[in-house]
Specification:
Blueprint (H helix, E strand, L loop, with lengths): L4 H34 L8 H23 L4 H39 L6 H9 L2 H20 L1 H6 L2 H8 L1 H16 L9 H31 L2 E9 L2 E7 L13 E5 L10 E4 L8 E7 L3 H4 L11 E6 L11 E7 L3 H9 L7 E6 L9 H11 L2 E5 L12 H7 L6 E6 L2 H13 L7 E3 L7
Parallel strand pairs: 7-8, 7-10, 8-9, 10-11
Antiparallel strand pairs: 1-2, 2-5, 3-4, 3-6
Helix pairs in contact: 1-2, 1-3, 2-3, 2-9, 3-4, 3-5, 5-8
């Protein structure tokens, strides 16, 4: 067995184990929820309120699961990566939204049915009960989060605004827990139910606090990150070099990203996911960003010595995920940053092809560095320019296969705008590139 095959078999086994544990956690907890409903201590008023109670219990579990997905547990992140976790996050969010719509709807229908009271007339009556009012407020906040998560709205909102709105999920969880505890009927359905819910919430909130607060505070206190240099790469792109103590203990790898904050220069709540644009060497880190939002546009004004607070490293978009000896790297726009870092990673051996998609050659950030690295590594670099049109679709299945005839025998890494990444992944599926050979970096779960 080759030296590449052994670690990749181990990696594949680790990912499979993570999936199995995630599914086991999901199915086991759903089974427990169903058992709660089998013999309730307090019968529901009628069939409609029974359905409302069923939906409410599943809503409580879905909220706890969502907390686990956004807690950035290293066990899941290192084995599955953010692109896979983003899929779980998206479907869990979709489920939460519909449960939030249906749970109160059936409860209201159940209470209005006996007296044939209009359903809207029941809302003020139930709202006089504080636990119910808190649940209504939480439902409204979920609606706001859902609306701003729609792709059309997401494209129009600056990342900083979108991120600030999504911080409301913590308010939703607090209100949801209080509603569940004091409303009572769902929280104490069976004798063991209360212990189960307290245990589940303690686990989910504990994981969140550990991954999002405790570990980042410990790491930043140890490494004491500071801005060492700020380099303009183009009129709207800037690279920030960061130094600190014992950076080799971060165990960062090319292709990973951090969540970056610059206290004193930007408000604490402004955080952005930026990939490393150079392979980490244990002495410094480099990020490269395009000035799109408030934070990224202000990077060029960062004074040297500015304190840096970084969470990470995150992501499984690394050479350790390879299953084949040869590699295809595909970048689009500023998505070139992790691709450039991967090209520098010496563990990425074998034959390497790099496809870099930009509108014009002037938009090709870090092109000079890519050319130098390609020359040193013996890699083939191809710049793909022009507007996407009927006659210019470089990532269609036919064009991809023409550019890289042995594409099915390579691991493929892709990072770029969402539309481009989706198009590449669709083509890879049509070309029957196995799923284990497809690697994509997305930031839908970050922040």
């Amino acid at each position: 067995m080759s030296t590449l095959a052994r670690p990749q078999l181990r990696r594949t086994g680790q990912a499979r184990t993570a999936y199995l544990l995630l599914w086991a956690f999901l199915l086991l907890n759903l089974l427990i929820v169903e058992l709660m409903l089998a013999r309730p201590n307090t019968p529901a008023h009628n069939t409609l309120t029974t359905i409302g109670r069923v939906l409410g219990l599943h809503l409580g579990f879905a909220l706890a699961l969502q907390l686990l997905l956004i807690s950035r547990l290293p066990f899941l992140d290192r084995r599955l990566g953010f692109d896979k976790l983003a899929g779980w996050h998206r479907w869990t969010g979709f489920t939460i939204f519909w449960l939030v719509v249906l749970h109160p709807t059936f409860v209201l229908l159940g209470y209005s049915q006996p007296g044939r009271i209009p359903i809207l007339s029941e809302i003020p009556t139930l709202a006089r009960q504080m636990p119910v009012l808190l649940g209504m407020i939480a439902a409204g906040l979920v609606g706001v989060i859902a609306v701003t998560s729609v792709r059309v709205a997401r494209r129009r909102l600056p990342y900083e605004v979108w991120h600030a709105i999504h911080l409301l999920v913590y308010v939703v969880v607090v209100l949801g827990v209080v509603h569940q505890v004091y409303e009572g009927s769902a929280f104490k359905t069976n004798n063991f139910t209360q212990a189960y819910w307290w245990g589940l919430w303690a686990f989910a909130i504990g994981a969140l606090l550990t991954g999002r607060l405790i570990l980042p505070l410990i790491r930043n206190a140890r490494h004491r990150l500071r801005v060492a240099a700020v380099i303009a790469e183009s009129p709207d792109v800037v690279s920030v070099h960061v130094t600190g103590r014992e950076l080799h203990k971060l165990h960062a790898r090319a292709g990973q990203f951090f969540l970056w904050r610059f206290p004193g220069h930007n408000p604490w709540w402004q955080v952005n996911p930026w990939s490393l644009s150079a392979a980490p060497d244990g002495h410094s880190l480099r990020l490269t960003a395009k000035g799109i939002g408030t934070t990224s546009a202000g990077l060029r004004d960062l004074p040297v010595g500015t304190r840096v607070f970084a969470e990470g490293p995150y992501g499984a978009f690394t050479a350790t995920g390879r299953t084949r000896s040869d590699t295809l790297l595909i970048a689009g726009g500023i998505g070139v940053t992790p691709i450039r870092a991967l090209l520098e990673d010496e563990t990425l051996d074998g034959d390497i092809v790099v496809l870099y998609r930009v509108r014009t050659s002037a938009d090709a950030v870090l092109l000079g560095e890519l050319r130098n690295l390609a020359h040193l590594r013996g890699a083939r670099l191809q710049l793909l320019t022009g507007r996407t049109a009927e006659g210019n679709q470089p990532f269609s299945p036919g064009h991809l296969q023409a550019l890289v005839p042995d594409i099915t025998e390579r691991d493929v890494y892709v990072c770029g705008p969402a539309a481009m990444t989706d198009a590449v992944l669709r083509s890879l599926r049509e070309l029957r590139v196995p799923a284990r050979q497809r690697h994509a970096e997305v930031f839908r779960l970050a922040g």
